[in-house]
Amino acid sequence: MASNKSEKQFMLSENEFNQMAYDNTALMNPQYIDDIDYKSEIQPMNSQQTKSNQFMKNADSDRYSCWSRFTHCIRSAWATRLTEDTMDNRELYIHTTLRELVIYIFFLITLMIVAYGPFNSNTYLLTSSMNTMFLQAQVTNGTDSLSTASSLDVLWSVIQGPIMNNWYSNTWYNTQPFATANNLTLLYQNRLIGVPRLRQLRMSSNSCMIPVYFADDIKECYGQYQEANEDKKPFGLKNGTAWTYTSSDQLGMYSYWGLVSSYGGGGYYEDLSRDQTEAASQLDRLFQNLWLDRGTRVLFIHFTTYNPNMNLFSVVEIVVEVPASGSLVLNSDFRSVKLLRYVTPFDYFVLACECAFLLFIAYYIVEEIMEIKKQGWIYFVSVWNSLDIIIILISIVCAAFNIYRTIIVINLLESILHNPNEFANFQMLSIWQVNFNFAISITVFLAWVKLFKYISFNKTMTQLSSTLGSCAKDLAGFAIMFFIVFFSFAQLGYLAFGTQAKDFSSFITVV
């Protein structure tokens, strides 16, 4: 008790000492009082500023925490073996691999539905029947057909005979007319869309050099077709599209690679009428005025049909090449394609899968970007990573074409419905559809191959991969030796038998 009292007295005496020191300092230096007052004034302000700074730090910390949680969710959604550190964590490696595999299986199922959904197993039957109908049909009381035609006069008889009859079939087999007037139907099931078109390309009479030995006897020389030197001058009657040249841009036609040469998309063309009598008159006028002559190098027969039972368009392009040798070379393209994609309930299910396919593409694009950001240029060393990029790029092209085709088909069909007597140019769409089928088939193939990427942790698959990797150099060396011998024999066959045997007539057919 005495001790506490003495301490209290000591403290009071110390305070008194400080007060006395303050008074003495104030007497010696009055400015000291102002400094003390100023510090006492700003002290509360510093305290408030400290609290404000602390609040801002807490807010920034909360925002940073939210962003961290968001980025963590993103990384978790796109976590792969390349974005996570799985080198020393076997459990994490298996977890991410299985997760990638499950997502990829769903992607693969969606891709298969998109690829096989529009496919009709009866497409070949339609193509085969159209081929037989136009290429094998024979002239009445004769044996000539388009597939056996060897001269221009036989070609005319086939066009004016069985081909015309197939185009303008308005009656049943008992001569009873169809219920719908002007409904041009092929094989009783396929409707002619628009009108047929005949188009030819020509070479001029001075398109090749005549040897001096025959210069007096031979005045005209029609050379082999070359698009750069094709004849574009009016000929014959010199009026109308059949006798004057029209460019490919105006026609909207594409180049064609035939058996003899490649041909441009322009030419001299005649669109036939939907009335059989008038169409026959048009063909007769062309026949009488020698529309096809020595200058003709190729004749294209274009038309399109639609089968409502199968919802398939048949875009037909019959090509009769007339080489400088004087014979006829027949080639044809019967493209049966499904251009109206969304009609039945199953078609709309496929549409839903196509939308899901777009989401998968977006998902894998983000995944590849994250992996490239994580790995850098090392990412492109792996074959599997390159395969991923190829699949994504082809998938983007297929998805873009799907959207483009839907828009173009709608616009084209509306134009045809308003102008049924005009030619329906489905050539571009059919070609792109065939290319789309080719692209989607490659995507399906690569997608199935990519499965090996996700099952590589299996011991058997690891051994298989290592075996193939070990013998890769030997296989490459053997392939080089094989192709050297193979192409040597191909050149031998082409040079020795190219003038006699059809299978050796060109180096491509030999290979």
Could you explain the architecture of this structure?
This protein has 511 residues and is of the alpha+beta class. It has helices spanning 2-28, 31-77, 90-116, 123-135, 152-167, 248-251, 276-288, 345-375, 383-418, 427-449, 451-454, 459-470, 472-497, 507-510, and strands at residues 185-186, 190-202, 256-257, 262-263, 268-271, 296-307, 312-321, 329-337. It has three domains: 2-75, no CATH class; 90-118 and 344-470; 123-337, no CATH class. Helices cover 55% and strands 11% of the residues. The strands form two sheets. Strands 1, 2, 5, 6, 7 and 8 form a six-stranded antiparallel beta sheet that branches. The longest helix has 47 residues, at 31-77. The chain is globular and about 90 Å long. It starts with a helix and ends with a helix.
Q: State mean pLDDT (0 to 100 scale).
A: 80
Number of strands: 8
Proportion of strand residues: 5-15%
Shape estimate = globular
For the largest beta-sheet, the strand count, sense and barrel status come to: 6 strands, antiparallel
Show unreliable segments: 1-15, 17-45
Total of DSSP H or I helical runs spanning 4+ residues: 14
Structural class computed from helices and strand pairing: alpha+beta
Distance between the termini: 119 Å
Instruction: Assign a percent range to the helix content.
Output: 55-70%
Order of helices and strands: HHHHHEEHEEEHEEEHHHHHHH
Q: What gyration radius follows from the Cα positions, in whole Å?
A: 41 Å
- The domain tally reads 3
The quaternary state of the protein chains shown equals single chain
Keywords: Glycoprotein, Membrane, Transmembrane, Transmembrane helix
Main location: membrane
GO molecular function: calcium channel activity; calcium ion binding
Family: Belongs to the polycystin family.
